[in-house]
Write a structure and sequence with these properties.
This protein is of the alpha+beta class. 33% of the residues lie in helices and 28% in strands. Strand 11, helix 4 and strand 12 form a beta-alpha-beta unit.
Length: 273
Amino acid sequence: MQKPVVTVMVKAARAAGGVLLRNMNKLDAINVIEKDRMDYASDVDEQAEQAVIKELRRAYPDAAFLGEEGGKQGKNGGSLFVIDPLDGTSNYLHGIPHWCVSIALVENGEPQHAVIFDPLRNELFTASKGSGTVLNDRRVRVSERKDLNGAMLATGFPPRERERAPAQLECVRELLRSIEDIRRTGSAALDLAYVACGRFDGYFEAGVKPWDIAAGALLVREAGGRVCDFKGAATGPMDTRGIHGRALLAGNQKLSAELQKVIMQSGFAAACA
């Protein structure tokens, strides 16, 4: 049975999804700012984030929030909701139909509940610690692929991390010796959701922030998968904004170990240290 807090988070995610859907056909009128080199935000991101916070505050008036757009809001010590109101902003602004809303409830740095909502496909991924991962009304698991042979992986090339591109491309070159292919979708949250339900066998990326991965990391773990940094260590607390992103890989237990080995041997892990 869905936890009460997840029910509230789902309502908040659907509210943000409504904002995003209503503005899809008004892209020419959206005010876009460049937060950093090739890192964009828009009025719609902010509106969607406010829609999430409004719904969550109705049920949890003392909660704090860590959002991609609004930063940290509220007092420390209570519930902390980590929010990406539009993961895949660049896709959205280019009219590419692949983006989502991501919300995680974090306690002591660890995600406890997670919701990722894809409004275009009406796909709702939810998880609570110790309760498994659900896609709409169906329990899901990570893929059972035992090694990298024939695997389908996902990655990203963060615009602020381009100095690491040579090492990442070397890693990709090594992986392509055995895997089927690599997808670069533009949404880390959906990449992790797809690992959780077995659509992708694995995922790796550097430069991701807590709001990109907090919900997705819990989805993968509750679906029987492994999430760690490139050296196999914990991904770090999800309750701090952080100036720099972090490195993360995900997959089932066996495949993630092989993926980590290639990342280490190719020099990509060292480049991200």
